[in-house]
C-alpha cells in the first residue's frame, strides 16, 4: 500500500517485508525519509524529485506517522527507522551470504561499525569500507567507484547524511552492477561503532527518539522550527472530519480482511 505525504509516496509494508522487497527485483534504491527531510523537500523541489526516484520509500520518524494519521491514511505497519532497516538488511545479508560495503562516517567509523556488525553476525561478509569525507565530484570519487566495482558488493550502506547520501547513490548506482540494494542510513555507522548511543527503547516506542537526540546533542535544537513547520503543514492539509471518518472505516475494513487472510494461511495443514 502507498501513502502519499507532501507529494512523496511511502511504502506501508513494515521492516521485514521491506527487506524482502529490497532483494526481490533488480537494483533497489531505498530511502527512509523523516519529517525534517520532507520539510526540506517542500522548500527544495529537486530534493523531492530525488527521493521520488527511489524504488522503496519507508517512513522514518513519528512526524511522518502523525502526518499520515492527520491526513486520514495512517500507516498500518508503523515506522521503519533507517537504522532498523539497516539492521534487518544486515541480518538477511548474513543469512543469504550477501557482500556488504559500508561507505561513510568519519575516520575509522565505517571499519569499527563493520567490526561490531561482524561480532554480532559472524557469517556476515564485509566486502569493504570507505570513509565519508571524500571528493564526491572528482578523481577520488572515480577511484572509489573503481574500488566498489572491484569489491563487487551486493549491499551498499551509505552514511553521508541527507541529501548527500541520496544524491551519491542516485548518481553512481548505475555504475555498480553488482549492487542489489543501496540505502542511505544517516548516522547509523556512528551508533554501530559505539560513538553515539541510540535512544532507549521506551523513548523509541513513544515516538520521542527525536527529543532524545536533541537532549543529547543540543545543536539539533536548530531543527525544531522546521519540525514545527512540518507539523503545522500536516494539520493544514488534514481532510474534513466526515472524509477522515470514511477513510478510517476503510482502513479498519482492510485490516480485518488482512487478518482474515493471515488466519487462512496459518490454518493450512503442513
Can you give a write-up of this model?
This protein is of the alpha/beta class and 270 residues long. The protein has a single domain (2-236), classed as Response regulator (Rossmann fold), CATH 3.40.50. Helices cover 53% and strands 13% of the residues. It has helices at 14-24, 35-43, 45-52, 62-70, 82-96, 109-120, 139-151, 164-172, 188-192, 201-205, 209-216, 224-236, 241-266; strands at 2-5, 8-11, 28-31, 56-57, 99-104, 125-130, 155-159, 181-184. The strands form 2 sheets. A 6-stranded parallel β-sheet has the order 4-3-8-7-5-6, with helices on both faces. Strands 1-2 form a two-stranded antiparallel ribbon. β5, α6 (109-120) and β6 (125-130) form a beta-alpha-beta unit. α1 (14-24) crosses α5 (82-96). Mean pLDDT is 85; it is low at 238-270.
Keywords:
single chain; alpha/beta; Rossmann fold; two-stranded antiparallel sheet; 13 helices; 8 strands; 53% helix
Amino acid at each position: 500500500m502507498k501513502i502519499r505525504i507532501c507529494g512523496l509516496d511511502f511504502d506501508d509494508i513494515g521492516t521485514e517485508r521491506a527487506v524482502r522487497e529490497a532483494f526481490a527485483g533488480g537494483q533497489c534504491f531505498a530511502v527512509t525519509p523523516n519529517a525534517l527531510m520532507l520539510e526540506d523537500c517542500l522548500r527544495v523541489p529537486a530534493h523531492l524529485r530525488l527521493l521520488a526516484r527511489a524504488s522503496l520509500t519507508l517512513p522514518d520518524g513519528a512526524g511522518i506517522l502523525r502526518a499520515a494519521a492527520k491526513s486520514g491514511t495512517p500507516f498500518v505497519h508503523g515506522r521503519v527507522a533507517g537504522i532498523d532497516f539497516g539492521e534487518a538488511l544486515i541480518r538477511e545479508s548474513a543469512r543469504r551470504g550477501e557482500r556488504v560495503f559500508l561507505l561513510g562516517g568519519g575516520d575509522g567509523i565505517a571499519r569499527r561499525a563493520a567490526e561490531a556488525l561482524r561480532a554480532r553476525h559472524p557469517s556476515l561478509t564485509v566486502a569493504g569500507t570507505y570513509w565519508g569525507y571524500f571528493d564526491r565530484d572528482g578523481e577520488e570519487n572515480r577511484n572509489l567507484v573503481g574500488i566498489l566495482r572491484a569489491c563487487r558488493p551486493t549491499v551498499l550502506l551509505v552514511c553521508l547524511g541527507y541529501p548527500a547520501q541520496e544524491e551519491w547513490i542516485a548518481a553512481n548506482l548505475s555504475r555498480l552492477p553488482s549492487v542489489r540494494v543501496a540505502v542511505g542510513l544517516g548516522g547509523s555507522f556512528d551508533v554501530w561503532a559505539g560513538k553515539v548511543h541510540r535512544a532507549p527503547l521506551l523513548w523509541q516506542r513513544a515516538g520521542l527518539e527525536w527529543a532524545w537526540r536533541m537532549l543529547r546533542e543540543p545543536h539539533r535544537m536548530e531543527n525544531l522550527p522546521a519540525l514545527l513547520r512540518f507539523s503545522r503543514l500536516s494539520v493544514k492539509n488534514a481532510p474534513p472530519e466526515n472524509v477522515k471518518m470514511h477513510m478510517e472505516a476503510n482502513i479498519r475494513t482492510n485490516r480485518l480482511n488482512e487478518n482474515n487472510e493471515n488466519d487462512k494461511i496459518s490454518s493450512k495443514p503442513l
